[in-house]
Design brief:
110 residues, alpha+beta, 5-stranded mixed beta sheet, 5 strands, globular
Length: 110
């Protein structure tokens, strides 16, 4: 129960920070069932399946700018994925040091 409340607080806090800084914040993905995650091509150990991840699209704002803002405001975010071709960011609070990755045109991590 407490972990679920923490997850909701994380998502709420992240979105509130983003909405205070940027206009038109669009959440494109949050929790995914393992079945849905497989359908969309997610990795088998996806943080989305644990409820620890959120994907965000902000029209006309470069993902690097969004990621830099999140890294400054929310150091608890330890997973950041950037897709500069589809213009979205992935954020999660995995149990590790900070990990940052970039997706190529095919959506594969480079």
């Amino acid at each position: 129960k407490h972990f679920r409340q923490f997850i909701l607080c994380f998502h709420f806090t992240l979105v509130k920070y983003l909405e205070a800084r940027f206009e038109n914040v669009i959440i494109t993905s949050g929790y995914r069932s393992p079945e849905h995650n497989a359908k969309v091509g997610g990795v088998s150990d996806s943080q989305h399946c644990l409820g620890k991840a959120i994907d965000v699209h902000i029209p006309n704002v470069h993902p690097i700018k969004v990621a830099a803002f999140v890294m400054e405001k929310l150091p608890s975010v330890h997973g950041i994925g950037l897709d500069i071709f589809k213009n979205y960011c992935h954020f999660d609070f995995r149990d590790s040091e900070l990990v940052v990755w970039i997706y190529n045109r095919e959506g594969k991590v480079i």
